[in-house]
Amino acid sequence: MSDTKINRPALNPAPAPAAAKGNAPTNTAKETGSAASAKKPAGSNATASTASTKASAARATDGFESTGKASRPGVAAAQSLSAVTTAAAPGQPVKKTMTLVYDAGPHSNLTDVKLKGSWDAQGRFSNQWDAGSIPMRSLGNGKWEATVELQDDGLPRNWEWGVTVDGPSGNDQWAVMGEGNLKLDLSKPSASYAPTTYHEMGSQKRGDDISFKLWAPDARAVQVKVTDQQGNVQRIPMQKAENGDWAAEVKGGWKQLEGKSYVYEVVDSGGLTSDRPDPYARQMMGEQRGIDRLYVDPMKGREENRYFPGASELTRFTIDDEENAAGAYLVLKDADGKQLNREQLLARLGAGDAGLVDKVRGGKFNDLWSQNVEADGRIKMANHDGAWTALVNNPEKLVGLRYEFQVMESDGKGGLQLRDDTNKDGAYSAAERQASGFNDPWSDLITADSGVSFRGSVVTDPTSFQWKNDSAPREKDPSKWVVYQLHVGSFLGQGGNSNRSTFEDLTKKLDHFKELGVNTLELLPTNEVEGSRNWGYLGVNSLASESSFGFEDETGKWVTGDEALKRFIDEAHGRGLNVISDVVYNHVHGDNNGLWNLGGAQNPYFNWSKEPGKFEQRDTPWGAVPAYHNPKVKQLFVDHAVQQISELKFDGLRFDFTEPIKGVGGKDGWEMLREINRQVHFVNPNTWTVAEQFDYDPAISRPAKADGTGGGFDAQWYTEFQHKLINDNSKPGLIQAASRGQTTDMDAFVNLLTAPRGLDGWKHALSIISNHDEVGNAQRTMNTAEGNKPTDFPDQWSRDAARFAAGIGFASPGIPMFFQGDEFGAQNDFRWGNTSTWDSDWSWESLGKNWDWTKVTFNDAQKASYERLFTLSPQAREQDGAYKSLSAQDKQVFNHLAGLGGEQRTEAMLDITRKQQFQFYKDAIALRNSSPAFQADAEVNRVYTHNNDSVMAFTRKSGNEEYLIVGSLNHQNLDGYNMPLPPGNWKEVLNSDAGAYGGGNFGNFGATLNGGGNTKVNIPSAGYVVFKKA
Predict the structure, then answer these.
(1) In the structure, what pLDDT confidence band is assigned to residue 90 with cuts at 50, 70 and 90?
(2) pLDDT for residue 11
(3) In 20-84, at which residue ranges do the beta strands (DSSP E only) sit?
(4) CA dihedral 360, 362, 364, 369 (to 10 degrees)
(5) Most buried among 206, 334, 426, 815, using CB within 10 Å?
(6) Same topology for domains 202-276 and 934-1029, yes or no?
């Protein structure tokens, strides 16, 4: 989401933690003589036990807080709790045999599971929990059981229980994840607790059987409606449990139902029937393949987002990634499958505004259907940077029609033929159409929601994927990370994102990240969202992965959903790269929000009212806040987070805008965040979590302690760094001020380095150099450096300043992160909902593959010299002194440029600057990776600042290694600038103005300077130099 670039609601602060009560007992009670032992399960079904929010008897809190990592969250200490009324009357105690089940679910790698509770060795109530530990017996599938005989004296007692385990996070870990201990109702024969439920909810493979489960407490009836690709429907009745879960099981049904689509057919409390997707599904049918919407400003002919006032809406038909096809057609048919001809289409749709489309396409081509339709009605699609596109006006008039894509290929005889036409009859059968990778396998019928709704869920087994690289070595210490943020669908997109990128494309670019030197990738949300082109923040929190990122693999199999994501993560891990997921729990939004009014107007997923029959909604500017106070609603988000780590193998989670969760969501939201952090760190102690929190409250990145304090996050998303360094609304950042000729506040920036606001230390900061919000809602660093009017070819100072910003970011404390494309000076805006701004332009990669880029010198002075030489004849050039002085490598570059036309030549020169930017990023990141002095929490000290001269200097130090960074945003080179240097000999090891980076090569040429007093330093304009202490 955006940060301070858009108006935020006034949010309440995090709830004040309750004071801990009671004395924490020790776990030293002997286990001999216990009144309980592990037994076979009782015949009755276990009922869910809820975690108490307060508890009168404290349990041991040595679980998480006693582990090696002090930052790991602890579990809440016992606090006062309203007493539980038992069934027995006061007087003679009644013996109660209780069966307690701990359901670890997918976390089956636990051992030494033990039961503890508020009773003594004779089974009498004791708030000292002094009966010791009772070993629990494994029931398989992650379930553990023990029975205990308790003495019910009929008095109101706070009977509680919990479990300790040996697991990934250590031995004897407290395995209850809520704020308190588990409550025990002695009027019932059993109780159970499951930290996660994603192994129970939704569709689940049970050997040869299949089960379904949905929480819809207010629904009158629910059925599972299963549909195959031929449209055959099967309905499976579901039964309702006391807690509002609807469940069904089909014996021997897995083989029959696997791969089919399904929805829940819900009759709500008002008697209305609707189809709802499964919030726990791992794969969705997705938006109909090849259809989405394009919104255009009718006056300017420019693409805008869907909420732009008065936008003209077009349906965009697209065949992705078919640059080698000989041609492509869109065919529209009536409801019976009969192809419509040109006259029928014109009568139904109207011709549309060709002039508007001409503006949208910048006059380069026009893919409005009416401009390309043949007499028989086939619409010739335009090749748009490897994708084939057609735009159709009046989307509402397409409803009820059917569509088909036809891709043409050479027949080897000089003609063309239909690809995937297996019987060679010149037409697609239904089976051939469904089997082609470019047509939708589920439906060709256009509806009002086509291209927006992700439709139903798909029956899949999330446990079937075979991981190869889960244990592959990768950097586990976040203080050594350099993070690269990217959006899967646009990372390699072309043609205004007409040709999107997929997980397969991203996998093929893993070598790019390795060459660059980053070790961690942070993906924008990959959960299923509305539309096939979306940042990902308007999802419905489905556990499914975005279907539009799917691809056809080398075997011809279409890979989508969680399998596509898992393949990418597995390959990234194999290359030594961490992968971070971006999760959105602060709101749910969308026209196809399957959770809204699920079961009726009581709207349980969003009803904050605690009074029966009443409804209270809480909102953010982007959608409604889920009702975290409801345990089943909270569980959905907890499950999603744990599934990201345990099932998808992400290495960490970035939480989108946590302020509404703990502000609008109050105490319930705060406790949900704490519970999630407990869970994910319990599952994998190396999990790293970061909160986008703009009040910069250090409490959020402190351990989740037993007294209710601390959010349990490892770090904060520290946009303050970017605001001070580059761009800010309230007060110009350094780059912003310097580009406008204003005084730069070097003092404020260096003060931030030495005393960061809202942090307990820099290891808790993901230091933002750039991110999707700053790029999409403000502008690229390169464009900020250019000032108010960015150009297509940034000037020398602007390119230098962009390197300055990145280099200072890599040299500063914190964990640095930057957004896709910055490593080569991308200038695209990446506006939300405006896909025409998403292309970063990777043409620079193919330039000069046989050139020695370490010897290429190209800057504005060289460019001006080249442009003069271009005007000379070849003979005159040979005699020109400037040409004669060129090195052999630079002559090769010049001759290549001279052979190109005007626009191509300009683009090639711009690509040279992009190559140089990439080389700088590689070297600056390599320097950071080379020394512990640049780690996130290594020492940082102020050396010098001068606001008017726009100069700053600071040191980084760890052990015996120390570096001095001297930078300037002055518009002039500072020759022999007199400034104090720390004692010692300082050797220049990096100069951002080096010729190889596109600079003017002004610096100290690797000299060693003597510190301990005022020393003359050469500081390049809009550049920085790094010295290492000898």
Answers:
(1) low
(2) 36
(3) 36-37
(4) 10
(5) 815
(6) yes
Q: What is the pLDDT of residues 645-673, one digit of tens each?
A: 999 999 999 999 999 999 999 999 999 99
User: What pLDDT digit, counting tens, does each position of 221-232 carry?
Assistant: 999 999 999 999
Q: What is the DSSP string of 174-205?
A: E---SSSPEE--TTSSEEEE-S--TTTSEEEE
List, as one string, the DSSP characters of 714-761: SEEEEHHHHHHHT--SSS--HHHHHHTTPPP-HHHHHHHHHS-TT-S-
CATH number of 202-276: 2.60.40.10
Distance CA(993)–CA(1003), nearest Å, equals 7
Query: What does the alpha-carbon distance between residue 173 and residue 59 come to, in Å, rounded to a whole number?
Result: 12
Token readout for 281 is: 């599904």
Q: How many residues belong to the chain?
A: 1030
Percent over 90 (pLDDT), the chain: 85
Give per-residue pLDDT as tens, 551-599.
Answer: 999 998 999 999 999 999 999 999 999 999 999 999 998 778 999 999 9
- Say if CB 266 and CB 237 are below 8 A apart: no
Q: How do 815-819 and 765-768 pair as beta strands?
A: parallel
For the cut 80, the answer to whether the pLDDT of residue 77 exceeds it is no
Residue type, 280: Y
CB atoms near residue 173 (< 10 Å): 23
Give the global pTM: 0.91
Both tokens of residue 285?
């049918």
Sign of CA pseudo-dihedral 552, 554, 555, 560: negative
Predicted local distance difference test score (pLDDT) of residue 788: 79
DSSP 8-state code for residue 838 = -
In this structure, CATH architecture of domain 934-1029: Sandwich (2.60)
Measured from the Cβ of residue 702, the count of other Cβ atoms closer than 10 Å reads: 17
Least confident span in 52-56, 281-285, 500-504: 52-56
Could you identify the residue written with the tokens 């397409």? 398
Tokens 């429907």 identify what position? 233
Using alpha carbons, list the distances in angstroms from residue 589 to 112, 255, 264, 769, 948: 43, 35, 20, 29, 48
Confidence of residue 937 (pLDDT cuts 50, 70, 90): very high
DSSP for 130-177? TT--EEPEEEETTEEEEEEEEEE-SS-B--EEEEEEEETTEEEEE---
> What DSSP string describes 482-515?
-EEEE-TTTTT-BTTTTB---HHHHHHTHHHHHH
Residues 58, 23 contacting (CB under 8 angstroms):
yes
What pLDDT was estimated at residue 591?
79
Collect contacts of 1005-1009 with beta carbons under 8 A, ≥24 apart: 1009/981, 1009/985
pLDDT at 1 over 90: no
pLDDT at 44 over 60: no
Q: At which residue do the structure tokens 């626009």 appear?
A: 903
C-alpha–C-alpha distance, residues 984 and 976, integer Å:
19
Domain boundaries, the chain: 202-276, 291-451, 478-541+548-608+616-777, 934-1029
Looking only at the bridges linking them, the beta strands covering 1014-1019 and 483-486 are unpaired
Residues 181-189, mean pLDDT to the nearest whole number:
96
Listed as own residue / partner, the contacts of 909-913 with beta carbons closer than 8 Å and 24 or more positions apart are 909/793, 909/858, 909/863, 909/866, 910/792, 910/793, 910/844, 911/843, 911/844, 911/847, 912/844, 912/847, 912/848, 912/856, 912/858, 912/998, 913/794, 913/799, 913/825, 913/858, 913/998
Residue 770 predicted with pLDDT over 50? yes
Separation between Cα atoms, residue 774 and residue 725, nearest integer Å: 12
Measured between alpha carbons, how far apart are the two ends of the chain, in Å?
Answer: 45
Out of 289-298, 374-383, 539-548, 805-814, pick the least confident. 539-548
Q: What angle do CA 291, 295, 299 make, to 5 degrees?
A: 145
pLDDT tens digits along 698-729: 999 999 999 999 999 999 999 999 999 999 98
Which of 773, 772, 761, 778 is CA-nearest to residue 815? 761
